[in-house]
Design brief:
219 residues; 4 helices; alpha+beta; two-stranded antiparallel sheet; single chain; 7-stranded mixed beta sheet
Length: 219
């Protein structure tokens, strides 16, 4: 009987066995975590692309409803540390870039904690220069006022989830996505049309002189 009991007694794990199990778990975690994270990012980008199409339709509908004479408002935004002179149009649901994204594009870039020293915007393989961005883009206006996409006529059903989402104060509390309108030409008018574009924040490079933000176009 003593031998039977002794033979069926369970054994504990040895130190080597525990180390092997922990190593296997570590390898699995290294594989699974990036895959899950990547899947989440792909899902977010897919939602932004769907919302981008909805917003583009809303922008076009807004333009079609504007029967009054066009009013151009001159603004002097300081975008990425570059002073510019830009005109926004009453024909489109837009506002100044600097008015919408004060955290990303402060008046004096890189002079205070949490403000970027520079921003790199990429559209495919093309880097958008500061001047091109400051002069050729405005911010999508989602306000509930009469001249916003969420106004009484509801040109979009709701504000997309990614519009106000930020990446957290530890990294400067910057927006994960920039929703903008790119000015497009028609005939001799270089700013006649608008197309919705969305840029995703891909990296924050922190430095004492100020952060460098990297955005890639996803829509």
């Amino acid at each position: 009987m003593r031998n039977i009991i002794k033979g069926t007694r369970s054994k504990g794990f040895t130190l080597v066995e525990l180390m092997v199990v922990m190593a296997i778990m570590g390898v699995l975690a290294a594989i699974v975590v990036p895959a899950v994270s990547g899947t989440k990012q792909v899902s977010q980008d897919s939602q932004v692309k769907n919302d981008g199409s909805t917003v583009q339709n809303g922008v076009s509908a807004y333009y079609g409803d504007q029967t009054a004479a066009e009013t151009l408002t001159t603004t002097t935004p300081n975008v990425l540390g570059t002073a510019t002179s830009q005109k926004t149009s009453s024909k489109w649901p837009e506002q100044s870039i600097s008015a919408r994204y004060t955290a990303e594009f402060p008046t004096a870039a890189g002079t205070a904690s949490g403000t970027p020293a520079s921003v790199v915007l990429t559209d495919g393989s093309t880097t958008i220069t500061t001047t091109e961005f400051a002069n050729g883009f405005t911010a999508v206006y989602f306000d509930t006022s009469a001249n916003g996409l969420l106004g009484t006529k509801g040109y979009v059903p709701s504000k997309p989830d990614g519009v106000d989402a930020t990446n957290g104060s530890a990294n400067g509390n910057y927006h994960n996505y920039l929703w903008v309108l790119k000015k497009i030409s028609a005939g001799s008018d270089s700013t006649a049309g608008r197309t919705v574009q969305v840029f995703r924040l891909t990296k924050v490079s922190k430095a004492a002189a100020g952060d460098t933000l990297y955005y890639d176009r996803v829509f």
